Amino acid sequence: MASDLEKSAKEAFIDDHFELAVDLYTQAIALNPQSAELHSDRAQANIKSGNLTGAVADANKAIEFDSSLYKAYLRKGIACIKLEEYQTARATLEIGASLAPHETRFAELIKECDEKIAEETGVLPTSSLEKNITENVIPAEDVQPVSQPSNQVTVATVKPKYRHEFYQKPEEVVVTIFAKGIPAKDVNVDFGEQILSVSIDVAGEDTYHFQPRLFAKIIPEKCRFDVLSTKVEIRLAKIEPLHWTSLEFSKDSPVPQRVSGPVVLASRPSYPSSKPKRVDWDKLEAQVKKEEKEEKLDGDAALNKFFQDIYKDADEDTRRAMRKSFVESNGTVLSTNWKEVGNKKVEGSAPDGMEMKKWEF
Questions:
Q1: Where are the alpha helices (DSSP H) in 189-342?
Q2: pLDDT tens per residue, range 40-80
Q3: Dihedral of CA 32/36/39/41: which sign?
Q4: Distances (CA, A) of 331 to 101, 160, 275, 328
Q5: Measured distance CA(87)–CA(113) in Å, rounded
Q6: Does residue 15 carry a pLDDT above 70?
Q7: Whole-angstrom distance, CA of residue 214 vs CA of residue 78
Q8: How many CB atoms lie within 10 A of CB 281?
Q9: What is the pTM of this model?
Q10: Domains in the chain, start-ordered, CATH in brackets?
């Protein structure tokens, strides 16, 4: 059965149906979870479908199961280059090149890494088979909202297994994952140039994975973590004393600013007083708002904007209906009809195939 799924996955990949290929490889891996070849092939499909952190995780698994599989190093290297993790990519590609001297792509990609590293640092790295840094991730399965013909929209969300938060100092970021009574042996944390990889694998429970691409680069060898009785505390050493406006990288994040003291709140960018040209913040803000308005969204982003537009332009009764239905249904129902929901409690409603559960803390 696994071989049939693998064959179908390869055919889907050849036909450029990369997401279907990922799904078929996932089914095959469920039947043969320790297959290095399957994880390596899914890494390739993930690269093509744009899931780069998933590709890194698959390549790491393939290397774990078969450290001589040069294709896994090649695919991890490609994914890391696309993630702009050039040091990690170069170290990985050098290992792969030593396993497959005939494969010319390693030399080409290593040269690309050298050029990118030189652009960033002004110094070419020395050749060495550095210790490979592993990252683990399982792509989150998003639960899609379901629209109904009536004026109610049902939305279901999946609650993360563990809650996390972060704070920062000029030289480090501290990430806290609130997990009570977890044995230290069940916690694995790896650090990349700009990837944090956390997995908590407790016997009898689903494995928890948390692998964000970080807001900025870190120094992996200076990072550390501690497993305490109520939490996992992770300390990330910043490569530069920049203020992180979020934990995770986003193309929409503002340009980070250097900081010299404890960070409390994000502030508007400031510039040296000697700068001759002043920034017209009102004009800049108007331009940003114009771009946001004209931006074409899809998926969850489009749905959220749709709700925001309804709320912004609605009368008071409609707003009251939206607030009341959303709160009383624990976020699963959004109604705009005050006459319908005003005199009764709105019960939660889950889509087909799901059920409502109360979470205990």
A1: 281-294, 299-313, 316-328, 338-341
A2: 999 999 999 989 888 998 999 999 999 999 999 999 999 99
A3: negative
A4: 56, 15, 48, 8
A5: 7
A6: yes
A7: 19
A8: 10
A9: 0.44
A10: 2-121 (1.25.40.10), 164-237 (2.60.40.790), 300-342 (no CATH)
